[in-house]
Fold:
Amino acid sequence: MTNSEITILGILKEQPVHAYQLEQLLKDKKLKNKVDLAFSSIYSVLKKLEKKDFVKSVVERIPKHADKRIYHITEHGEQELVDSLKQALTKPETRKSSFELCLHFSNLIPNSELKVILKMYEAELTRMIQNQIKEITTLKTDDQVKRALYNRSLKLWQAEKQWLKELIIMI
Structure:
């Protein structure tokens, strides 16, 4: 199951919604930076999930307004979601990174210029770390797993920043 499918099923498990609400909930739940799911692809993912019988839809008639198609997760979809979550949570994964790919070919850039570029990357990491700290301090949830998820990103970026400093010194 794709990350887009997991995301949509996870939201539908919480509540039935129409496609526009899905887009809004992705923003509200701060999932846009976790999954690459544009508004235009939400419908195609929903149709794919319907074909697999993971999702059912019902047209809601609203007087003097356009009809809305409301999507619900099915029992089959709930089971598939839980199975996919269990599987994904047991396997660490490496991410394909354009940064790592380009660093592999960085010998094509003079060292003095590479240091400047990497310091720009470090500045961006610093900005991301500061924003994440603000996000954590304003996080309004008692869910410890969600809090830990925000801390995970922070810790990973802090470790990457330390690694980057060491790399810059080596160059």
In short: The first helix runs from residue 3 to 14. The CA atoms of residues 57 and 76 lie 14 Å apart.
